Amino acid sequence: MSVLVVTGTGFGVGKTVVAAAVAVLARERGSSVAVVKPAQTGDGHDLDEVIRLSGVATTFELARFAEPLSPAAAARLEGVPPVSLAGAARFVGELAESNRLVVVEGTGGLLVRFDEDGATIADLARLVGAQVLVVTGAGLGALNHAALTLEALANRGLGLAGVVIGRWPGDPGVAERSDVADLEMLAARPLAGVLPEGAGRLGREAFARCAREGIGATLGGSFDPAADARHAELVRRVGITPPSTRTPGPFREGPRRQYG
User: Fold this and answer.
1) Percentage with pLDDT > 70 across the chain
2) Which of 109, 128, 165, 247 keeps 20 to 30 A from 178, CA to CA?
């Protein structure tokens, strides 16, 4: 059994689609998988998307707030108790006893506040002993957001499951192409996946194929950035240096954990 926390470097980077991709790959391998959303804010329906894309029906939304704010701010505005991440951690731990993989999708970024004491999804990851999968965009601003997230993970002693680009554009510019090597340098490892923009609009069968092709082996897919034609083209066109020869970021290569 294992728990994987999926967080984003910001809003709209493809976190829900990546969570669904990890879930469908685990389901295809015959693993029991559950997906948990500790707090949904605004009018989004992230778990409905996970169910539609992955076919995984064991999903749990622990709290819902009307306003698209941080869970702490949304609860305060509504005058209701905030999410108890300690309670969420206990619930996730119980789920992990009966499921081979539990995917926990955060709200917003790693340090978004869930209560007035400043508890974050990073605290939940620590409580359940989970590694964290970071979903990022590509393009201007992406590297700074990714660097801050990875630094916060490292400073808290949390394990990094990998970095996935959640929305790779169909016509990437030089900023997007250049980000590949720099993201790998920051994470001190190859990308754990690249999903195309629009993957969330696919049907279930097409999405499963997209997940297999776009997610790396440690998460159950077949994506290999070193062999992928897109990656090779980026190296050729941008003239980037392979990350193994560059100064690494806050993380160092360590044992890889297989999920599901």
Assistant:
1) 87
2) 109
